[in-house]
Amino acid sequence: MVNLNRILLLIIAMSQRASLQVLACTSKRISIVRHGQAMHNPRAEVAKANGCSMEEFIAIMREDDCLDAPLTDLGKEQAKTVKIPTTKSNFDLVVSSSLSRALQTADAVCPPSIKNGSKRVCCEHFREVNGDLLNAKRRSRSELEKLFPSWDFSHLSTDEDSLWTPEMEEFPAVAERGYIGLDWLMKRPEESILLVAHGGILRYLMTIHPLISLQDERKSAEKPVEARFDNCEVRHYRLSWINSDNMEEKRRKIVMTEVDP
């Protein structure tokens, strides 16, 4: 007599394997932009470029700190001059951190007035290193909705910023947020994405997370690939899953492969 339960389990296993292989073959093109110069970092960025320590870097930012630091006039000009060598209408999705400087930059790089049908979604996972400094604390969702009416803020779970704490977030936790954000993007239907985020989270998610593999062939003695993004620097990648035969594996490795602009 045929064991129906065994057949059913076999069908389910084959279905799961097929689904995993589909996900493993999924890839998306992503253009990543760091926001322009913001109110809290003109002096700190100069000090960083001159080789100051992380402690000195943060101390200078603390002196210039302000809530949800917006772009400076220079930052606004930097954002307007970002060059993405593809028609902006090719972006299926525009994603930004929930901090104003990233949203301002995204609106300058890909203006909401362009009739391209791109979705514009704000995502908490891509906000800057959280805690301690007020420039990392976002405005309320209701205020952001008034300031940036073209954006979807439904992914913000609370009106006020419930994530910010007086203690600075540990860097591995920052990288984990970045992984969760990329995993979220990989599971979405859009294939061409513009992401605007911050120097800190971009650096840590690309360099220290064990499930993110950076395949970038650019070599520079002056600036290694893993270096922090400059203001309004753009880098282009293909995101893809690494295939796995492990049916129990729930967290797949994400490969970021450099592509031509």
UniProtKB/TrEMBL annotation:
Record-linked SMART domains: PGAM
Signal peptide feature range: 1-20
A Pfam family annotated for this UniProt entry: His_Phos_1
InterPro entries recorded: His_Pase_superF_clade-1, His_PPase_superfam, PG/BPGM_mutase_AS, PGM_Phosphatase
Keywords: Glycolysis, Isomerase, Signal
Top-rank taxon: Eukaryota
GO molecular function, one term: phosphatase activity
GO CC field: cytoplasm
Protein name: Phosphoglycerate mutase (2,3-diphosphoglycerate-dependent)
Source species: Cylindrotheca closterium
Phylogenetic lineage: Eukaryota, Sar, Stramenopiles, Ochrophyta, Bacillariophyta
